[in-house]
# Entry
Amino acid sequence: MDSDRQSENNGIRLATRRDLFRLLAFLDEKLPHLCDIYDHVLTHLLTTNPNYRVHFLCDPTGEYVAIVGTKRDWRRLLGNNETQRTWLLSAWAIDESTKAKAYRSIKDIDWITDEFVFTGLQYEPDPAITALFVSHGRELTLHRMNLYVMDRQAALTTELSTPDDVYVKSLETSHSSTVYDHWDYKDTTVVESVADSVVESPSAGVFLKETDELVSWMTNFLPTGLSQLHTLEQFRRRGYAAYVIRYLSKRTAQSGYVPYAIISPGNKASENCFINVGLESVGPYHICEAKFDF
# Structure
């Protein structure tokens, strides 16, 4: 390993641009299971947005033992206009205790005031991760999910077609409020974060040719991948969701990302839609909110 990696192997480091290229090469060998942290590293490499960061730990020989992607976000508190800072975390580590150590070592985090949304493989977080957040006074809300991924080469060769009365294109920041207002989990973020994702990552929308009205859409929202899928009620059962998923999967792969989605095990309609487009189940996954019990 390079001497600059070995010289700081006892503490967590903020990744430089040079580090990010190395981290991507390392994580590429661990796909498709680590697509969330892979996409986070790539986003940080491609954007100058300071809300995205990547940290890593090395062992005494300079080998990676933990990689953590952080995205600084906010959520609006119910009943007032105040916002609560929230960290969106995706990570890989050689074991869960090392991952917890990496979380604790990130200097940007204020363990007294901040809240968190973190993700991981399996249906539940490891007890070492749970204990970390509970010991700092956070209440945990667990969402058991399944991880679906499309092979990037398959996504690149996907053929795109739409009916004559609609067209598909990337979203613009002016569409952010529409996406936010229709998202079931909008209480976990703010509209400005949706706008960031539209700017920093691929997105897709189905528009009526006659009026240019946006009727179906999807974003690539870290750390949950292909997300915020919605079709206006009066335009459902026309296959628009499938058009959006195909377009966004291809745009995602063209940009170097891994097309992946997190789906609730009980949401059979979404599962069938993603499977029919070409995504395959990789295994169980979880999203966990660590918040104060206001």
The CA atoms of residues 133 and 294 lie 16 Å apart. Residues 152-282 form a domain with the Aminopeptidase fold (CATH 3.40.630.30). Residues 240-254 form the longest helix (15 residues).
